[in-house]
Amino acid sequence: MPTPGVKARVERFWRAIRRLKTISEVGEERFVDNEDLIDAAERNLQVAVEATIDVGEALIAYMRWRTPRSYREVGAILLEEGVIDETLYRLFQEAVSIRNVLVHNYVYMTPKELYANIRSLVVPLARIMDSILSYMQEKNIDP
Predict the structure, then answer these.
(1) Burial, 94: exposed, middle or buried (Cβ in 10 Å; 0-12, 13-18, 19+)?
(2) Residue 18 to residue 125: CA distance in whole angstroms
């Protein structure tokens, strides 16, 4: 059975998604002029992607599938094992790329780019997490 930390990550994921949905509704002009919204968006997008990776890694470990060598490979294993489909796999890869920019090259992402990314990733991230959780439910794995 996965650790209690997985459930906490799932809960934190949904909190981040709710925050990002709210932020994405303020409009680009208001967003780019508000440093608090920008900071909240950066952090919650990073958390949402990190939680998706972490829950995917927990499932992989629990199922004793091959060990991923990178965050991108987490998505590849989830695809190989039928947890996510090809479309969600591509979105997973995109989310990991955005996460890497937020963590390592944050100064290169403009507020407009960040706003576009949250608007384009909120729904796909939720779909990916739903797929992972559905798979866990089908296999009677309690997150």
Answers:
(1) middle
(2) 12
Q: Coil, strand or helix: which one is 5? A: helix
What's the DSSP call for residue 3?
-
Token pair in block for residue 102? 């937020």
> Are 112 and 35 in contact, with CB atoms under 8 Å apart?
no
Question: What's the CA gap between 53 and 56, in Å, rounded?
Answer: 5
Q: Which residue has the tokens 């934190």?
A: 12
Burial label for 83, CB within 10 Å (0-12, 13-18, 19+), is buried
The answer to whether the predicted template modeling score (pTM) of the entire model surpasses 0.90 is yes
**Residue pLDDT tens, the chain, 143 long:** 446 689 999 999 999 999 999 999 999 999 999 999 999 999 999 999 999 999 999 999 999 999 999 999 999 999 999 999 999 999 999 999 999 999 998 788 999 999 999 999 999 999 999 999 999 999 999 87
Locate 115 and state its tokens: 């706003």
Tokens 């303020």 map to which residue? 26
